Amino acid sequence: MKDKFQNLPLRSGVGIVVLNKDNKVFVAKRIDNPKGFWQMPQGGVDKGEDLITAAYRELEEETSIKNVELIDELEGFVTYNLPDHLLGIIWKGKYRGQEQKWFLMRYLGKDNEININTKKPEFLEWKWVDLELITDLVVDFKLHVYKEVQEKVKKIINQ
Q1: Which pLDDT belongs to residue 113?
Q2: Angle at 138 between CA 137 and CA 144, to 5 degrees
Q3: Quick one: which of 20, 37, 52, 122 has the most CB atoms within 10 Å?
């Protein structure tokens, strides 16, 4: 089964680390995950869309957050492969995983401006957490992504 999917391409994606004024990270619990894992906003890049535009669009689509400033683009890309039980199901079976560009942004608004009840809701609830905790909350096949992102963000905010 797995061999059938190994030649599928990686989907181009973006991820956004949103920090509040206290350097806490925005995370949300996915609707479609029965085990209640949390994640940062992330999603696919549309055809012809540049990465930063995709990041702002995904952030607004998933959280209604618009009031942010870009702190930095994290160096390099991070990839993950879907686990066997999701291959052929997620993204209509077109991709085996995702190659992501991550961005670090500062949220300038108030918490009551955040709305996850969007046109196509992806999340049940959201919260702010310490950067150290993001690796404790994430689904296992994205753990290496969150560890790498965590390290890169630490370097930027501790400069």
Answers
A1: 95
A2: 125
A3: 122
